[in-house]
Specification:
By secondary structure, the chain is an alpha+beta fold. The chain has one domain: B-lactam Antibiotic, Isopenicillin N Synthase, Chain (Jelly Rolls, Sandwich). Helix content is 27%, strand content 22%. The protein has eleven helices and 17 strands. It has helices at 19-22, 30-37, 53-61, 63-68, 72-77, 121-126, 128-131, 143-170, 182-187, 275-280, 341-352; strands at residues 11-13, 15-18, 44-48, 88-91, 105-110, 193-199, 217-220, 226-229, 233-236, 239-240, 249-253, 259-263, 269-273, 290-293, 304-312, 319-321, 338-340. The strands form three sheets. Strands 2, 3, 4, 5, 6, 8, 9, 10, 13 and 15 form a ten-stranded mixed β-sheet that branches. A five-stranded mixed β-sheet has the order 1-12-11-14-7, with no helix packed on it. A two-stranded antiparallel sheet has the order 16-17. Helix 3 (53-61) crosses helix 8 (143-170). The longest helix is centred in the middle third of the chain and has 28 residues, at 143-170. The two termini are 31 Å apart. Mean pLDDT is 89; it is low at 1-6. The structure holds 2-oxoglutaric acid and fe (ii) ion (FE2).
């Protein structure tokens, strides 16, 4: 899926809900949820006026270039091959759409809610990508742990409120026996994962496939339930700068197949739907295909991008029954059409990573 750079960029703003509305359980937000996440929605919704958010975002995102700039041997100590790089530092381990290794970005993964999600050795062996323990750079970047946990926790709290209103919306068209509360699933889970992302600057214009919309991050849908996203910060040598190319940033493919650039305020948290929510809501809430386009042109030289994603996910033991109407990965055979979330993740890791633990 790619479009030439000459084609016009359609820019669309997210549907926005204010924090004060969201925290009220008796306000009916099903109209907004439908507009954002329903069958004709863009698949993204943003929350504004979240108390304390702006500082926590700045505090964490400014650490991304510093983490990426640590000496290679220090970053290597923060790697965890056993969890298939799903804890700690990861660079050049994941495969892109093209099948090539992704050298364009570095990521740091941790569960912002629990350092040690389980002490059961069978579980740790079975699902190391979720049941392992966090790895913090306590000597090389001691501020990271606190900043990561503070932002992750806040985005989780707000995400739970979004989930509550999603449940209210979905309950309107599901039979009583089919109801599975997204809010409850997320509250009881030990699988939430934060990802601090750092996109390396293009050293020369041949580094990035500039004609492609997905030149910085390939097309995909997140496989969890709900993803919280900060607005990215662009910087040069760690100094924040406005992005010189209005075509750069997050793109979404709409339900009708149109590709649009999505914008939201820097003080808003955006939420997207992942595949597991589409599965559990039997298609009432649709997953959101998205990618990231790199800036183009001379001014893009040396430009780096930092952002944070919070993947809110069900517990590893959560059973997923794949309904026929939800199209999932064609490359996953669902002979018995029921998988735990941990097993489903394993199948995806087999597609996106070469190495087995
Ligand atoms: O960089 C971004 O804005 C999005 C990253 C993303 O989609 C992901 O990590 O799943
Ligand atoms: Fe994503």
């Amino acid at each position: 899926m790619s479009r030439s750079s000459e084609s016009t960029v359609h820019t669309v703003s997210t549907v926005t809900v204010s924090y004060s509305e969201l925290k009220e359980s008796n306000i009916d937000l099903s109209g907004k949820i439908e507009q954002g996440f329903g069958p004709n929605g863009l698949g993204i919704l943003s929350v504004k006026d979240v108390p304390g958010y702006s500082d926590l975002r700045q505090n964490l995102l400014r650490l991304a270039p510093r983490l990426a700039g640590l000496p290679e041997e220090v970053k290597r100590e923060l790697e965890d091959a056993h969890s298939r790089y799903n804890f700690g530092w990861s660079h050049g381990k994941e495969k892109l759409e093209s099948g090539k290794l992704d050298m364009l970005k570095g990521s740091f993964y941790a569960n912002p809610l629990q350092d040690v999600p389980t002490s059961n050795s069978f579980e740790i062996q079975r699902y190391p990508w979720y049941c392992g323990s966090n790895i913090w750079p306590r000597n090389s970047l001691p501020e990271l742990e606190g900043a990561f946990k503070a932002l992750g926790n806040l985005m989780f709290e707000v995400g739970l409120m979004v989930a509550y209103h999603c449940d209210q919306y979905v309950s309107k068209d599901l039979n009583q026996h089919e109801k599975q509360s997204l809010e409850k699933i997320l509250l009881g889970s030990r699988c939430h994962k934060g990802r601090l992302l750092y996109y390396f600057p293009a050293q020369d214009s041949t580094t990035h496939d500039n004609d492609s919309i997905s030149s910085w991050c390939g097309w995909h849908t997140d496989h969890g339930s709900l993803t919280g996203l900060t607005r990215a910060i662009f910087s040069r040598n760690s100094v924040e700068v406005p992005c010189p190319d209005s075509g750069a940033g997050l793109y979404i493919q709409t339900r009708s197949g149109q590709i649009v650039k999505v914008v939201y305020g820097e003080d808003e948290i955006a939420y997207q739907i992942g595949e597991t929510t589409a599965i559990l809501s039997r298609g009432s809430l649709c997953a959101t295909p998205h990618c990231v386009r790199a800036p183009q042109g001379e001014e893009a030289r040396g430009l780096e991008r930092s952002t944070f994603a919070l993947f809110m996910q069900p517990d590893w033991d959560q059973k997923l029954t794949f309904p026929k109407e939800v199209t999932s990965h064609e490359d996953i055979s669902l002979s018995d059409n029921v998988l735990t979330f941990g097993e489903y993740t394993e199948k995806l890791l087999n597609i996106y990573y070469d190495t087995k633990p």
